[in-house]
Amino acid sequence: MPKETIDTKRLVALSLSPRNMPEGFRPPEPAWASSFADQQSPIVMAYFGAQFHDGFHGRLVPPVQAFFESVDAPANFENARYADRLGCTNLITAAYWT
User: Fold this and answer.
1) CA torsion 32→85→79→96, rounded to 10°?
2) Residue 88 in contact with residue 53, Cβ under 8 Å?
3) Confidence label for 89 from pLDDT (cuts 50, 70 and 90)
4) Confidence (pTM)
5) Could you give the CA distance from residue 22 to residue 83 in angstroms, rounded to a whole number?
6) Is the CA virtual torsion 34, 35, 41, 42 positive or negative?
7) Which of 29, 28, 27, 30 is nearest to 11 (CA)?
8) Which residues contact 92 (CB under 8 A, 6 or more apart)?
9) What is the pLDDT of residues 32-84, one digit of tens each?
């Protein structure tokens, strides 16, 4: 059983999302949780996203890749890629600096 790590004094009420969920719906598990109890320095997170039709991909990758290889690049990052229903490619990167 995971240890409860959320500081309940910092929680705020959120509107139901997605909006078509039945009233009183509670997900069986939280979408995500993080605990940085032992972390002494701040953590900075940023999300970068791009959406394009397939022909544009070649012009997008070099400057983005250059940033993630630069001296100011995040210590860690995670990438996601998917094609939406309109046929566009979507790239999302979650970056973390410690």
Assistant:
1) -50
2) yes
3) confident
4) 0.55
5) 29
6) positive
7) 30
8) 47, 48, 49, 79, 80, 81
9) 766 677 777 888 889 988 888 776 666 667 777 888 889 989 988 888 988 88
Q: Can you read off the two tokens belonging to residue 69?
A: 């290889």
Q: How far apart are the first and last CA of the chain?
A: 28
Distance CA 94, CA 73 (A): 12
Q: CA-CA distances (angstroms) from residue 25 to 10, 12, 22, 54?
A: 22, 17, 6, 39
Half-sphere exposure of 44 (CA within 13 A, CB side): 6
What would the pLDDT profile of 13-23 be if each residue is shown by its tens digit?
Answer: 555 556 677 77
Chain position carrying tokens 């997605």: 18
